[in-house]
Amino acid sequence: MIKSADNKKIKLVRSLFTKKNRDKLGLYIAEGETLVDEYASGTDLIEFILVSEDCKSQKFVSDEDLVFSVEKKIFKSISNTSNSQGILAVVRKRESNIEDLLRSNLIVFIDALQDPGNMGTIIRSADAFNALALVVNKGCVDVYNPKTVRSAMGSMTRVSFYNAGDSIETLEFLKEKGYGIYSAVVDGDSYMEDLDYSGKSVIVIGNEGIGVSDEIKEASDVKFSIRMTGKAESLNAGVAASICLYKFSNKMFEKQ
To answer: What domains does the chain contain, in order, with CATH numbers?
Structure first.
């Protein structure tokens, strides 16, 4: 049993609280029984699992190669949740390149999104509606932020992530490969319901406050809005993305 806060595994987990170290080490944290179980059963990406001594789950037993028991107070010091289930895993990031995006006919491009909960919602919805590639640019919250990982649940294991160093260059690459670029905006040229988006598509979702940037709007083929019949002026970014993914996915499915 791990009883020291100076244990190298405990120190590693603490280091992964920051994006800088997640990027440097290529690792991140997944916490919670259901989430860790998804990684353990569906991937080979787990470095190791830590289980609090008071954890009631019997799914993970002590294994000197993978699973390690941790003293209760030590585990509490590395938990990122208020009601911890006493299980977390350190997970390896999957490497993706721009060519990997082409495996999915429906792609989500995230422009400077800031909220980790919104990011997690979008990842989960992308998985639900078969948009298995997601692009983030420099202004975005880290997709491996612990809150994002919790919000996305097991969808993190099925959606590929690509960091766009140059947003316009990435969009131009996708255009050349036959994708239509559709930016969701408040004051679009048309409503989503009126579009023909049955082919390979990229849905662009913008920042919570300012929306899609002007340069990305200019690079888009279509700027569209979601028709709202109530009095709200706008939608949460995660909600808007989910509606778009549902509509685009179903239209593409109908055309198959």
So the answer is: 8-92 (3.30.1330.30), 98-254 (3.40.1280.10)
